[in-house]
């Protein structure tokens, strides 16, 4: 039982779960779930109350019962009590102040990755302004490797996303080639298949793999099929670089995706065994997004941002190369407008980084959300400043397969230019070697022609 | 084995030869590293069309006039979402009928036939432009097949599942709801058709069959009407809809 009195009015919160929900900055999904604060005052009362809660309380009160949920069990069982000693006396408010201290640097933040639970990260984010979320995230550095190195400070990568509504190989290849010539694709070349069958997915896998080998591109491929499809292909020895899956923060929501921790582990081990990475062996690619637990009717009265942070515990178990919050895809009933999408993206990036994940963000919106390219430009710039590991690269921002708008090849070049960021080092060397980019990161004159001249035709299976 | 053969690159845009393989916005050029003015404004225009479609209003008077040709009663209904803003934030309200609508339906004589429903969904434009054209093809087929029809229903601020409540009130055995789909940048006038056998409140989407992208440049109404008619007959004879019905080979497999 938590409470706070403001001007004679007593605000009571029966549980940590309720307190977290009421302290959450306004978003439509929490209203839809009937969890959000009833007034501006109640929200701030909850935030003031939350600021005084000890971090140790989070270890004693699970928001979803340990017995009922394997994600809770994962969180509690993997908590690092030794590392926690450094911050064990702090309240949530004290944690915020401590995170913002100049002395709390990259190394110290690294040392508490396993000391914080997702709920602690979510809690502190709720009393932080956007500025705080950016300032702390920028101090974190999460580096992962497969055929290149992603997440180094001063670098910023893109997932090249050349989707096509019917998986037409030439259509995919056309967008893929264009993207490469814009310097996109160091995080991965990742395609959402229109048809999730092993045969259809294998065709796309082979297509990217062939292209990657033909041009000796230091990157990794991924077809974002269901994990059971990927697992089947891995077991048949298909050239799978990264294993993809959408994940959520409760066991029940994951079940609605057709997954469990044991299935994820099976696929992780199988993909690892292919041993295809040259620089490192981070082989998983996860996507998340606020609202997925509510959408699956599996949120247990936990607000959507806390549920999202819990998904990061799931991701972390499998040492992913990439974790992508697909923030604006879910629609206005969860995140209504540019303001809510921006806030959610900064929270997700912050919480993920704090917990030690290689966070990227699909900076995106659908046509029924109150958002447009200007909102995406703002968010893109904020995330660039915050040190986001990667974003999407899509022809002209327009994904013609998933029917939503994300970031374009051009957007990534804009961000690299205004913030002085570089691609993943191995990929940058490749871009220079191929004459696609110059030393300043600008598209080289005649680059595309030069590359296309190296081959008579682009063979595609 | 598919193959892309290079053509002579056109000056300034060496990748323009790739354009024939995809509708994606490739080979749009760059000014500095940014998208050129013409392309930037073309994108804005496409988004504007999508936004206008989301906020478009169902022309219920005109639709009611046009529906008179079918000699069926037409019922005007409304969901519990009172505005488009609320509709977008509270999908639950868009699935429920308001009190007036419930009363209007309660006044109807119970009908064991199939109910055809038109709802604005996320693009009233799609309904204004495509719904009557589809019904002109579908209703004669149903009448010829001696299928009993309930009153036609027009629903404002409706979501797919609102059809379940309507059908239950009317005692209908099957519902078909024509509804505006979420507009994309390439099309703001796509209509979807959802078929549900034995509709009742609380059903999930896996108990429905869907035909989507119905519009002149997508799935033409002629094809959509054939598919729907086939599905309706199958659903009525097998007494199912949804995933189980979809498993059956038939017209659907050519989609």
TrEMBL record, chain A:
Major place of residence: other
GO cellular component: cytosol; ethanolamine ammonia-lyase complex; ethanolamine degradation polyhedral organelle
Binding site for substrate: 159-161, 192, 287, 362
Intracellular or extracellular location(s): Bacterial microcompartment
Pathway assigned to this chain's UniProt record: Amine and polyamine degradation; ethanolamine degradation
Record-linked InterPro entries: Aldolase_TIM, EutB, EutB_dom_2_sf, EutB_N_sf
Cofactor annotation comment: Binds between the large and small subunits.
Gene Ontology molecular function terms on file: cobalamin binding; ethanolamine ammonia-lyase activity
Record keywords, A-Z: Bacterial microcompartment, Cobalamin, Cobalt, Lyase
Transmembrane domains' residue ranges: none
EC number of the protein: 4.3.1.7
Binding site for adenosylcob(III)alamin: 193, 245, 295, 401
Transcription regulation recorded as keyword: no
Protein purpose: Catalyzes the deamination of various vicinal amino-alcohols to oxo compounds. Allows this organism to utilize ethanolamine as the sole source of nitrogen and carbon in the presence of vitamin B12.
NCBIfam families for the chain: PRK15067.1
Record protein name field: Ethanolamine ammonia-lyase large subunit
Protein source organism: Mucilaginibacter gilvus
Lineage: Bacteria, Pseudomonadati, Bacteroidota, Sphingobacteriia, Sphingobacteriales
TrEMBL record, chain B:
Gene Ontology biological-process entries: amino acid metabolic process; ethanolamine catabolic process
InterPro entries the UniProt entry points to: EutC (IPR009246), EutC_C (IPR042251), EutC_N (IPR042255)
Location within or outside the cell: Bacterial microcompartment
Catalytic activity of the protein: ethanolamine = acetaldehyde + NH4(+)
Record-listed E.C. numbers: 4.3.1.7
Cofactor section: adenosylcob(III)alamin
Cellular component per GO, a single term: ethanolamine ammonia-lyase complex
Cofactor note: Binds between the large and small subunits.
Enzymatic class: lyase
Binding-site residues, adenosylcob(III)alamin: 160, 181, 210
One Gene Ontology molecular-function label: ethanolamine ammonia-lyase activity
Keywords: Bacterial microcompartment, Cobalamin, Cobalt, Lyase
Pathway it works in: Amine and polyamine degradation; ethanolamine degradation
PANTHER family: ETHANOLAMINE AMMONIA-LYASE LIGHT CHAIN, ETHANOLAMINE AMMONIA-LYASE SMALL SUBUNIT
Oligomeric and partner information: The basic unit is a heterodimer which dimerizes to form tetramers. The heterotetramers trimerize; 6 large subunits form a core ring with 6 small subunits projecting outwards.
Family under the similarity heading: Belongs to the EutC family.
Function of the protein: Catalyzes the deamination of various vicinal amino-alcohols to oxo compounds. Allows this organism to utilize ethanolamine as the sole source of nitrogen and carbon in the presence of external vitamin B12.
Name of the protein in its database record: Ethanolamine ammonia-lyase small subunit
Organism, scientific name: Mucilaginibacter gilvus
Top-level taxonomy: Bacteria, Pseudomonadati, Bacteroidota, Sphingobacteriia, Sphingobacteriales
Gene: eutC
